[in-house]
Amino acid sequence: MEWRWRYELVSYIGMAISLSKQTLGYHLAHRQVEIGVSYIFSVHCDSNLTLLDYFVVQPGLNLIGCCNELNAGYAADGYARSRGVGACVVTFGVGGLSIVNTIAGAYSEDLPVICIVGGRHSNDYYGARKILHHTIGLPDFNQELACFRAVTCHQFHNHNINIFEFQAVIYNLEDADHQIDTAISTCLKESKPVYISISCSLIAIPHPTFTQKSIPVFLSPNHALGERPNTRRPSPFYRHLLGCRQQCILRRDSRTADASLFVGPVFDDFNSIGDTLLFRKNKAIIVEPERVLIPNGPIFRCVLMKDFLEALSKKLEHNTTAYENHKRIYVPEPEALPKSDPKEGLKVNVLRKHIQKMLLGDMVLTAETGDSWFLCQKLRLPQGCR
User: Fold this and answer.
1) Per the database record, which ranges form the Thiamine pyrophosphate enzyme N-terminal TPP-binding domain (predicted)?
2) Which of 41, 199, 251, 292 lies at a 20 to 30 A Cα distance from 172?
């Protein structure tokens, strides 16, 4: 009852001050709506309750409570894949350390995810050598920042110590609006996650820098805040690795083709078929997010992948030779499966048959790397299913 009373009291205070639109809480909530975030995923705790109150009352923004940080992070990951940008809110210390694995995944997949952390009291940033809850039991609060430094893209110039930091850590209101807007615009421009930590004691304090009008933030000559530039990949973009039989065909074709075109390649052990994908580099055109590499020729920089592919599509002629060759030698899996004894163990091919029957046109199928990934390669997606 005591905890419930405290939570209701904090919520009531948050609702009362939410009418002020010159607060950090309103500014951050309003920015989420401006960039197209309609659902934000959270794990509530004492240091982010007031901030969550602003998200609750913000028109156009729906707060989704999650059971743990992994749920919130992966929900924001999936939302970013579907809608272009996602956001999640957790507490400092235990919350930030729990969600960092999902942010690392979003970083590897070039997903713009805004990770918002309800930070400690602003007084704790100024030489207070005391141990706080949610921490690892030391008066040093940099463990969380060190973890996020490697998996976020935003660099902020800290004028107090004249260096560039990789996260937006807000413990005063003087440049809070600048930090927030720069972090969000960098997230959209780079299509990578960003980290925003906000001191819990500053969320409801009015400040003249938080204007009610929308402030345009420069991204590129053709984009402003609220319009996410798709610089990383054509949308939608999905990584796909061919099955075992198709892998042999891919290896053969890559060696015998007159030329190869690789779009956004990451030549890791999986995408290179166990490091066996040998291709002639002197005949391979590689298209990266912001440049095009021509074999034995120049490197064209500041060329967006989307622009390159759109221009290339207008020059190409329809050619089905490779597809016809593939159909000629491809042996499909048998449709019918032999009846199995109800008492014997469940087999993978039987499981795949049942999963196949479950798929509908409005579904999204996600497979984890490993056995399930190889299993799903053989599924036939109905029209509209992704």
Assistant:
1) 23-129
2) 41
47's tokens: 């240091």
* Range of lowest pLDDT (252-256, 271-275, 341-345, 357-361): 252-256
Distances (CA, A) of 206 to 14, 17, 181, 202: 13, 9, 17, 9
pTM of the model as a whole? 0.67
Helices 2-17 and 49-57, axial angle in degrees (round to 10): 50
What's the CATH code, domain 230-331?
A: 3.40.50.1220
The number of residues in the chain equals: 386
The class of domain 2-224 in CATH terms is alpha beta
Q: Quick one: which of 66, 61, 136 has its CA closest to 94?
A: 136
Q: Where are the domains of the chain?
A: 2-224, 230-331, 335-386
Per the model's pLDDT, the better-predicted residue between 192 and 250 turns out to be 192
Q: At what angle do helices 69-83 and 94-108 cross, to 10 degrees?
A: 30
Q: How far is 321 from 328, CA to CA, in rounded Å?
A: 11
Give whole-number Cα distances, 92 to 126, 127, 197, 267, 364, in Å: 17, 18, 8, 36, 32
Name the DSSP letter for residue 22.
Answer: S
The answer to whether domain 2-224 and domain 230-331 are alike in fold is yes
